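User: Second chain of the day. Same drill as before.
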Amino acid sequence: MANPGQLKISQLAALVAVADHGSFSTAALHLNLAQSTISHAIATLETELGIVLLIRGRNGAVLTPLGLQICQQARAVLTQLDSIRHTAQQAKGLQTGRVRVAAFRTVATHILPDVISRFRRSHPALTVEIDEYDRYAEVEQALREGRADIGFVLLPTATDFQYWEILRDDFVALLPPTQNATAKADASLTWEELVSYPRAANKRSTQNNRLVEEHLAQFGYRLPIDYAVREDSTLMSLVTKGLGAAVLARLEAEPIPPGVRVKSLPEPLERVIGVAILENAVLPRAVFVFLDVLLAAPIQTAGKPTSS
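Assistant: Same format as last time:
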């Protein structure tokens, strides 16, 4: 007596495998099962349905006309089950997990806190790990070596990354507090005035320092480093005490101490900050959700956000 209520997924999978491979033995190899298990699954399926699905012969097994219809329906059921599993796996992937971010200090300080706050509000079970680096090249290396999922880089970057521009950050001159009561606060800075100061620079910011030096060289000026320091707080203290000037990206300069004068350069210079992932990397879905939040977030900084 037919009893279709007892159908099993394993029976449907066996039927599809025999239909695809043309024999019980090859289907068994494909499913990593014994041939007797495949034979039993097909036999019980035919008994429960009350019909013949396959014609057995020396040259293999062939679907009957009714078996062909049922095999097509079984294939659709298996496809739908795969879809159900995929949906469940995606949901599970956003219930637990982490996003590993590589960034330099200014991004970690001024951009990431707001983005992470937005991300955690919608996905509280996911964690974000931040590794800070001194150099853009170190961020790129962390991505290549699989130590980070997402990295903040200077654009343009290498061709093995997929990237999105998020911010244009202009360079400014930080000058000591003026001792001249008659000096105009809004007076434009000249190259001659800038190079008259001793220069303080953070020696860990090698690429930014090089950008500044190459920019000045275009206009025939040099601004050698007189005070090479490792901490921005030390650099700011030197400028505040009137011992020198500094040229920094505006975001890098924040927060600016009281009294320090901020001047635009005579000819503008900017750095373009982007977020990157390794091209063709297999990343957790949480990483792309974090990217969506980042790219949708208004970047509230002293720099200039990229136009949409």
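The chain has three domains: 4-86, 98-166+272-305, 169-270.

User: Great, on to the next one.
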